[in-house]
Write a structure and sequence with these properties.
The chain is built from one helix and eleven strands, in the order αβββββββββββ. The longest helix has 18 residues, at 2-19. The two termini are 47 Å apart. Strands 1, 2, 3, 8, 9 and 10 form a six-stranded antiparallel beta sheet that branches. Strands 4-5-6-7-11 form a five-stranded antiparallel beta sheet, with no helix packed on it. It has a single domain (27-179), classed as Beta Barrel (AOC barrel-like). 19% of the residues are buried. It is mainly β and 181 residues long. It has one helix at residues 2-19, and strands at 28-44, 47-61, 67-74, 90-91, 104-110, 115-124, 127-136, 140-147, 158-165, 170-173, 175-179. It binds 2-acetamido-2-deoxy-beta-D-glucopyranose (4 copies). One 2-acetamido-2-deoxy-beta-D-glucopyranose binds at residues 89, 104, 106, 119-121, 130. Residues 54-154 form the AA1-like domain. It is found in: Secreted. Residues 1-19 form the signal peptide.
């Protein structure tokens, strides 16, 4: 009698335990092809003509079958990309038409430590999900500085350029919640 009760209890518990296993269903965001470039051009010793930083990558979500392009510009004069500190949440491109209708991804980037925060909402089999995650990238940067020693009015005075790239994809563990609509 006891044994029967125990085995039916086990039979009852087993599938539930597997279904609720905390990690089996959690997807991963992967940031591919991360590049981060900065362009600063002075037209005179005191005049900043161009100061612009851009970050770009391809985002995949292991729960979804398509790739999203994410990119952003920053031209704050005292620095670029504060990781959401000034409310700079950047939208990724919408998914290709026909797939992932309603999916939206936003991200933050912090140029101080090259960290990313990524949120994405999507719909799968009629259920809406939001996934949130953050992670660090390691960027290798090349720097080029040029100054015009014989500068006269109308020429560029100096250029300061950085090209940064991540040689590996960055995988981010995602916390997923269902969204009731
Ligand atoms: C990464 O960049 C390469 C070369 O441009 C491209 O072929 C590949 O599709 C990109 N990866 C993703 C996930 O988009
Ligand atoms: C950064 O510069 C490299 C080399 O020119 C280019 O391939 C890449 O697309 C640039 N990235 C951004 C975000 O502009
Ligand atoms: C993601 O959502 C959380 C909770 O709403 C928010 O605190 C965080 O700033 C968001 N991050 C991005 C990159 O949108
Ligand atoms: C992305 O940002 C838009 C506009 O601020 C907001 O409406 C949306 O909820 C955000 N989505 C995610 C996934 O954080």
């Amino acid at each position: 009698m006891k044994r029967t009760l125990l085995s039916s209890l086990l039979l009852f518990l087993l599938p539930t335990t597997i279904a609720n296993s905390p990690h089996s269903a959690d997807p991963t965001f992967t940031l591919h092809n991360i590049t981060y470039n900065i362009t600063e051009i002075y037209r005179s010793p005191s005049f900043f003509a161009i100061h612009d930083a851009t970050v770009s990558y391809h985002l995949t979500n292991s729960a979804l079958s398509y790739t999203t392009q994410c990119s952003a510009h920053s031209s704050h004069i005292y620095g670029y990309f504060y990781g959401g500190f000034f409310n700079d949440f950047f939208p990724c491109d919408p998914p290709p038409s026909g797939v992932g209708a309603g999916a939206v991804a936003n991200f933050t980037f912090n140029a101080a430590d090259y960290s990313f925060g990524v949120n994405q909402t999507w719909n799968l089999d009629g259920v809406n999900y939001i996934g949130m995650g953050s992670g660090l990238s390691h960027l290798d940067c090349r720097h080029e500085y040029w100054t015009n020693d014989h500068w006269t009015e109308g020429q560029d005075y100096s250029t300061n350029l950085w090209w940064c790239v991540s040689h590996v994809d960055v995988e981010i563990t995602v916390t997923v919640s269902r969204v009731e609509v």
